[in-house]
Structure formats: structure tokens, C-alpha cells
Amino acid sequence: LFTLAMRYASAQKLDRAATVLDESIRLLEQAQPGNELANAYLNRAWLAQSQDKIDLAMTFLGKGRATYTLAGNVFGMSRADFDMGLIVAKQGQLDSAMTFLQRAYDQYSRYGGRTMLPAVLDGMANVAKQQLKYRDELAITDRFWPLSADLADVHMRRELSFVRAIALADNGRMLEASSLAHQLLREIDPHEDTTLVAEVPA
Questions:
Q1: Closest CA to 67 of 29, 108, 106
Q2: pTM for the complete prediction?
Q3: 190 vs 143, residue with greater confidence
Q4: Which of 24, 109, 162, 169 could covalently link to 1 via disulfide, CB atoms 3.0 to 4.6 Å apart?
């Protein structure tokens, strides 16, 4: 049921996906709470967010985090914190968003979740910018810049370069920002990086 729900979601049949995933959750809740149930909760939260049901998404994220905690899954707890941070940031609750993201960053750092750190730092830099804390924004990008050769995800590399360019501009370092933006324009794929194609020139 869980796999079927994800297939429906991939096909953009979100209502059908939610119905099937709810059934999966109902069955999992009858068993011993564990990582499978927590994963289902987080994916149900993602579906709710995709349908603009933010309160429902936060409810499922809370359930997911609690279930990961009972299972002793630190990485799952961190993922829930990360997702919560992004959602409350969209709602304009910037201090709360930074708290969630910082907690996720600290846990990933402490327990070796290196592959997730760039995405968390990306979120933290965006929140700092919205808070108008431009020095903090640049300092956050300093944590991932220059980009590590170990970061193989091309899309994340471009996203982080974009965030770095904005942080440089926000701190008056216009030549560096412009150079980085022009480099990005040469690298981005118009078919794969549609958001960056629109945002980088601006």
C-alpha cells in the first residue's frame, strides 16, 4: 500500500495517493510503532503539503518525529525537523524555522549525516535572508563554500552556488556575486533547472 501510494503520487494523483497512504498508516498503527510507520507519516505530511493542507502536514510531521524518537532513529528525527523548518518558513515563522533547521543541522553533524548538511544549510541561509540577517546568511554559506568535491548532486551544487551568490550580493560583494551568477548561467540546464533558469538572471 505504501509503495502504491508513492506511485500514485509520482503520477500526480495526489488524492488517490492520500487515500491509499492513509490505509497504509491505519494498518501500520495496529502493529508495533517503528520506522515504517514514521516514514509513512512523513510521506503523508509531504502529500498534505503538496495539497496546501499545511496544518495537516504539521500534524503528520509531529507524529512522525514522535515515532522516530520512540524508535531511536536520530536521522529520522532530523529529517522531520528539517521538513518542519521548511514548512514554518513558508508560513513566515522565521525564528521557529531557524530553530528547527539548526536542530536538524546539529543532529546530522553529530551523527555523521554529511549528505544532508548541504540541504539544511541551504534552508538556513534562505531563512537568514528573510530575517534580514545578511551577515548570518553569508556566514552560513561559508560552512559549505567552497563546495566539497564529495558533493556529487549537480542540482544541489548549482542551488548552493546560487544561494552563495545571493549572500555575497546581500553583503555588498557584487563582483564576486556577479562572477558566480555568470558561471551558473553557463552551467545550468534549461530543461532540468527551470527554477534557476528563471531566478539567476534576475
A1: 29
A2: 0.90
A3: 143
A4: 24
